[in-house]
Amino acid sequence: MNKKLLCAALLAGLGVAQAAAAQDFDDRWYVAGSVGVNFQDTDRGTEDVPFATLGMGKFLNQNWSVDVELNYQNPDKNSDFGAENSGLWWSQYGISADARYHFRNADSKWWPYVRMGLGWQRHEEEFVRDPAFGTPDGGFPMQHEDNNVAVNLGAGLQFDFGRVDMRTEVGTRVDFDDTQGRAAQLQEDYFTDLLASVGVTVALGPEPMAPVAPAPVAPSCADLDDDGDGVNNCDDKCPGSEAGQTIGPDGCPVPVSIDLKGVNFDFDKSTLRPDAVAILNEAIEILKRYPDLKVEVAGHTDSVGTDAYNQGLSERRASAVYDYLTSNGIDAARLVGPNGYGESRPIAPNTNEDGSDNPEGRAQNRRTELNVQN
């Protein structure tokens, strides 16, 4: 129980240490060293003793590290196996390969870990045989030397101070020493020592370079459209175009004509013919494609009839187109009119040069137009 309390106090005392600023995973090799107390298995018949370690290691990734470590301790024997053995030494040293799993993330300033490893231990011991278990040897110390496998298990805390890290650790070493300098009746198969230590690791080599962010690449003119007209700056010949204008592939405003050729009316009629409806549907798609476009709806007639009659007929024809547009999703605020121009704006001759009637020309004049206003 006293050993457990001592180890707990050691860890608690070191737990108040303040860690330095956290750093990311550091894959440099490091030198590691520690000092501590080896609480000997009571079946050894040896005194508890200080021990020291020295080794090298490396983090394989953020969580796993590996170390190769030398250890040394030199306990004195006590009188548990005869007063004649008291004060003799038992030198013990070895090497081990250990892996540690660190419960940490990139921002950790301190973190816990567990340790596991396998090693080789060397024992060199002085002893005097008890006459009760064999032939007396005259009281002169004898020597016993042996090698065996050992298993390391432990847990600890690691504190990050940059190049130097601190470790505080408790653990056990299961020492499979099955031959000792004692009578056969007192031989043990293995010993379990408890170890508590404080150590440091010192990273070797220069500080790892922080990743350098690539310099921002200035956008080219092909990636920019300063006036928002849909034409990149490289191709835009008119960089100051305004919203609502119709823009050509060179970035310059272009006149938009909505061709209603074919939206003609029968003689003396203002109702839309089926062929005219198909053309108006195309005009509606154009208007939807350019939502800022405003147009005038204008109606016209041929020259047959009085001026007053033809004026009213042209207005009715313009109204027929106007009503069709608004009933198919075109906002009336985008339409000017409907306006009628009677027979005043022919696009073809109503009569031939000899004064005779020109039915084809009059058919072209019986029309409606969408005149772009912006």
UniProtKB/TrEMBL annotation:
Gene Ontology biological process terms from the UniProt entry: monoatomic ion transport
UniProt-recorded Gene Ontology molecular function terms: calcium ion binding; porin activity
GO cellular component: cell outer membrane; pore complex
Annotated signal peptide: 1-22
Origin: domain of life: Bacteria
Bilayer disposition of the protein: Multi-pass membrane protein
InterPro entries: Bact_OuterMem_StrucFunc, Beta-barrel_OMP, OMP/PagP_B-barrel, OMP_bac, OmpA-like, OmpA-like_sf, TSP_type-3_rpt
Record keywords: Cell outer membrane, Ion transport, Membrane, Porin, Signal, Transmembrane, Transmembrane beta strand, Transport
Protein name according to UniProt: OmpA-like domain-containing protein
Species in which this protein is naturally found: Cognatiluteimonas weifangensis
